User: Fold this.
Amino acid sequence: MSGVGPLEAHLRERRDAGRKLLIPYVTGGLGDQWLDVLWAMADAGADAIEVGIPFSDPVMDGPTIQEASQKALDLGATPIGILDALRDVDVSVPLVAMTYYNLVFRTGHRRFARLLADNHVCGAIIPDVPLEELDDWARAAEDGGVETVLLAAPVTPDDRLAELCRRTQGFVYGVSVMGITGERQALAESAAVMAKRLKAQTDKPVILGFGISTPEQAVEATRDADGVVVASALMRRMLDGAGPEDIGEAVAALRSALDTAG
Amino acid sequence: MAVDDSLMGMPSASGRFGDFGGRYMPESLVPACLELEEAFTEAWSDASFRDEYARLLRDYGGRPTPVTDCTRLSERLGVRVLLKREDLTHTGSHKINNVVGQALLTTRMGKRRVIAETGAGQHGVATATACAMFGLECVVYMGDVDVERQALNVFRMKLLGAEVRPVSSGSRTLKDAINEALRDWVASVETTHYCLGSVMGPHPYPWMVREFQRVVGEEARDQCRELLDGADPDYVVACVGGGSNAAGTFAGFVDTNARLVGVEPEGGAAIGHGVPGVVHGSRSFLLQDEHGQVLEARSISAGLDYPGVGPEHAHLASIGRATYVSAGDAEVLEALQVLARTEGIIPALEPAHAVAWLLRAAGTDELPTGSTVLLTMSGRGDKDAEQVMHLLSP
Ligand SMILES: Cc1ncc(COP(=O)(O)O)c(C=O)c1O
Assistant:
């Protein structure tokens, strides 16, 4: 893949049309309605959807995603099962897989990239693969046509940030806070700083994630960023028994807040 | 730092020992790993740091530890058994060697808070001890299964002023305590040092912790030569959880002709039964399912209850320089009693694994009659007395 891939092209086009981007997350294999949740998210105005492929040891995740991952695993979720289930799903917005490296490594880089691409997943987020360890996966991903989204953190120094922005594909994922995933009362002060620093470095879409739970926080985050990922707040609802319709409503509320603020 | 052409010298720039190691860490923690690598590299080539470290190990830690010639056990087994007595250090295990080094580094980096994971509680106790001595805040993560089976160590940590946070996720043992410590670190990295307890994790930990444990092997080699008229032992044996006491021991003998043997627990034999994988920052052997989900280890010994192993051991195994065997719970319990009765030394359950292999292998092709063995007695059995009492009561 050279130049701009389909994920980035899609997000750029929408951003350049003045839209704030919304990327909800769903844990693959969480219950028997997660595919319906995916559809509901798309229908409610998601610009892309992050599909979590659960791992036994999710060190970047807080209690909610840990619980969602463990529950999905207990229900028998496997990477291949989740990706297979996506084969016939054409939700018209790009899907991005979020997982941890050992699942990729165990499956094999090339085979994993092919599994993603063959099942409509055009991007991958693997938080425990930093720049230093990126090459093996990135080569396989490029050959397979998968865009690799890199994470930037508040502590990332400027020179590293520049390199991250150069190598990320699809968008750049700004971690809004020094911490793990999970709902928070207020948006961290580091969020705006992170977004501004990234915007100063790159023209690629800048998406903030981690701790963005409410429509108000989403609006606040997109003052500087191009969009947000919302994960724990939605998964908390699913764990509490919410169905596709409820999740759709929550995503619609985020959507309308972003649209009216913009 | 001088180029070191020993087999157990510096890892590559990317922190690799052959195919193993690396730095598979979230971006939020990479700058801290880079900072730590720089701080350790600089400190380790600074004579004043080394002097201070050696002084603390001597005056506070009780080094050098002796090597004990076990005449009764030797007679019984037909092999000469020498024990490197890390059980005689302050706090009762080799863990103190690493922790004193990391506590010194913590203050050198200007950090005031230390977090650690612990399985058996020995690393937690050692960390709490060093933090008390240096006046550092200390939080220790411990799986709640281990909190229960190592209750005495939990109390010791609290006495030493540390906060113990039980971990109830996953298998609720060492692996999950590491996950939780990493989650703390992501949020606290600017003020906090993560004092990892073994030769695992992202670069520079496997290298740094081995260097802080190298003192075990270097002392033992010199002591053996004194006892053996300049000769080296034929076999050098240590138990392997993450692998720090084994790595420190092996580092002193890797350039001799001694055969190096690591003993894993049967229910957590990452090298014996695992396949290559990546968890907690490095590529090594790992107990995992066909999809890459990490499996739970199961061992009588909390300190060895870990599905992975330090990357340098994976390397030493793959090039054949060290051999890794395993011991099961029942023979470990038996070995603990045999050593207690024949030598008056009650080992911790972890090094009792090494003793179990010794008892099983002595007189076979694996360990022929007449050989000399140096075995690292990594810790004393006090912490396990209550658990063993329950296991042995009919
Ligand atoms: C006495 C003792 N030996 C060995 C170990 C295992 O650690 P390692 O393999 O890093 O030496 C522990 C861990 O808690 C221990 O307490």
Observations:
- The first helix of chain B runs from residue 30 to 44.
- The CA atoms of residues 112 and 135 of chain B lie 8 Å apart.
- The interface with chain A takes residues 14, 22-28, 30-32, 169-170, 175-176, 179, 182-183, 186-190, 275-281, 283, 286, 288, 290-294 of chain B (CB under 8 Å).
